Amino acid sequence: MNLQNNIRIIGRLDVKGPNLVKGIKLEGLRAFGEPYSFAKYYYENNIDEIFYQDVVASLYGRNNLFEIVEKTTKNVFIPVTVSGGLRSIDDFTKALEAGADKVAFNTAAIKNPELINKAAEKFGSSTIIISIEVIKYKNEYFAYTDNGREFTGKKVMDWTKEVQERGAGEILLTSVDKDGTGEGFDLDLIKKVSEKLNIPLIAHGGARNKEHLENAVISGANALALASMLHYNTILNPNNQNLINNNKLEGNFEFLKKKSSYKSFGEEDITMIKNFLSKKFNVRI
Question: What is the domain extent for residue 82?
Fold first, then answer.
């Protein structure tokens, strides 16, 4: 893809029940607070898009995000994507009626690839994102489902090509191996996939600092879905304690008291990220 296109910064918000959560390699979920409050904060600080992912939806066969999306889109006026547990045209319709601008799906696409064609035909390719969870095994990249738990047997390079041919408008590429580690993106994966695509590629998994983001764009990413970088920066800001302390939600909040375990993630906010990237790429300031 042409690097002259605007590079988008997307706030990725994983949701489990009422909580915004984040894990490492999509496991060991830590709770942060109310998802809507973080989405609104990111919008107010000039994020380009919001991506909501129900991380247990496929496991339980349902999606709980529609109410959160309805609340979000009353005050957040940027594109919002819903993902997790969407299995049919009817599910996509409900998500869009709730206020989402785009839908993303993974498991349903793997099980029924024709659904990509049908969704693109009905809603338009620009509305359809295919999420691909990737694990590397013996120098080969494979697609997984259910937060990296279920092996599909599909090689990522073949699957991305098929997804594009079936009419998807974008691909969200998550390196499960890198997710939440702060080790940087899997640049080889991004490069190999981007070379085969004529549609935007959203890179996700591994970012800790702005240099990691620059490297991902150089490797071929058109957008960057960020979670840990944004969430930890937000909770380290003394002015944002209301986002954490005002919630009375159940979950693992104990880690918030141990700042040494995550403070290296929180050094750069959205403005700093955009100012840095804008020196080399077209970025929406």
Answer: 8-277
Question: Could you identify the residue written with the tokens 């793997």?
Answer: 110
Of the listed 34, 48, 91, 133, which one is catalytic?
133
220 three-class SS: coil
DSSP tag of 5: S
CA-based max dimension of the chain: 49
Is residue 14 part of the annotated active site? The answer reads yes
pLDDT band (50, 70, 90) for residue 59: low
Please list, in sequence order, all residues whose beta carbon lies within 8 angstroms of the beta carbon of residue 239, skipping any fewer than 6 positions away: none
- Is it the case that residue 62 has pLDDT exceeding 80? no
Instruction: Check: CB of residue 116 under 8 Å from CB of residue 86.
Output: no
User: CB–CB of 160/203 below 8 Å?
Assistant: no
- Catalytic site residue from 14, 177, 179, 186: 14
Give me the half-sphere count of Cα atoms (radius 13 Å) on the Cβ side of residue 24: 8
* 144 within a domain of the structure (yes/no): yes
CA distance 159 to 88: 20
**pLDDT for residue 105:** 96
Give the span between the Cα atoms of 28 and 38, in whole angstroms.
20
> Per the domain annotation, does 131 fall within a domain?
yes
Residue with tokens 């109310």: 34
In a domain, 200, yes or no: yes
Q: Give the CATH number, domain containing residue 182.
A: 3.20.20.70
Give a yes or no: residue 135 inside a domain. yes
Q: Catalytic: 133?
A: yes
pLDDT on residue 3: 45
- Report the domain count for the chain: 1
Cα 119 from chain centroid? 20
Q: Is 253 helix (H, G, I), strand (E, B) or coil?
A: coil
Cα separation, 194 vs 196, whole angstroms: 5
Q: Are 261 and 227 spatial neighbours (Cβ–Cβ below 8 Å)?
A: no
